[in-house]
Amino acid sequence: MGDLIQGKVILISGVAGFIGANLSIELLRSNSPVQIIGIDNMNDYYDVSIKEYRLEKIKSMSESRPDSTWTFIKGSIADRELVNEIFQKYEPSIVVNLAAQAGVRYSITNPDAYIESNLIGFYNILEACRHSYDNGLPGVQHLVYASSSSVYGSNIKVPYSTDDKVDNPVSLYAATKKSNELMAHAYSKLYNIPSTGLRFFTVYGPAGRPDMAYFGFTNKLREGKTIEIFNFGNCKRDFTYVDDIVEGVRRVMEKPPKKETGEDGLPIPPYAVYNIGNSHPENLLEFVDILQQELIRANVLSEEYNFEAHKKLVPMQPGDVPVTYADTSALERDFDFKPSTSLRDGLRQFAEWYHDFYMDQE
């Protein structure tokens, strides 16, 4: 383990979220001693009991690591005073900003939430990072933040590379994530803040987000409802298992972009952006086929379940893209890491968790 994490104060926003919680658990497990400060507004965009379940998992991991500390703060990063208070009180060395209003389709019906969390909230984090160096303090050594594969919009060229031009977002969500990268670049240049943006590709796994397809499909199938498969099944997604995402984030945290001076005597922005994906896009119909097999195996659904009667192929939705496909060669080169969990293994873990979480309580 690298020295940058061990013994340090790490601030994780969106800590009750899918990636935030799993990252916290892994850092406590593998990097003790460590001091994790987590903030989350616990909004009800999806079932809050899943967020509470995740927080409970972090708490129990922290209790098994007596030399580490875990502090949870309920609040929003859009609350500037609160963000400043947290930075002044805890003086984090590493900030991992995962707080964001997620989801492409929801950004069409509820745009305000995206502006507040993804733009104003991120701005507050950047400002707090900037002022963390005031009065000669060492300040934030690395800001790692979530971007999204949605920034690629309807780019035709695949796989998606971080060298591609991404100026044509097809949803407000994507536009806010591209804005985060631009804002971080400006702050890296102006204030020499080492920052790394991570474009996540369709993250899935146990205790994930219920608004994601695999989770929503499972709920509907259990209720005997019909699942809709978009673009008549001709969608491909680069599904990335949550443990792979967490390992990628952990490695990135360890290695901030170097601070260097350019020929003009000014800082070269210590700024980087990487894709984290599986580099293996799966057809949605095949994905659903594996999901149904694993749901039967985990006794979430009966072996006699008639899938054909509950499946409907429908056209593309506004804001969606037909394919996501990550070029992860830069991540591999710089961090010696490539996500590798197979879809079947990942969906098996999800199906078993789903059975335990929902059906053992019935």
TrEMBL record:
The keyword Flavoprotein does not apply. This is NAD-dependent epimerase/dehydratase family protein. The keyword NAD applies. It comes from Sellimonas intestinalis. Coiled coil: none annotated. Gene3D superfamilies: NAD(P)-binding Rossmann-like Domain, UDP-galactose 4-epimerase, domain 1. Keywords: NAD. Residues 10-277 form the NAD-dependent epimerase/dehydratase domain. InterPro entries: Epimerase_deHydtase (IPR001509), NAD(P)-bd_dom_sf (IPR036291).
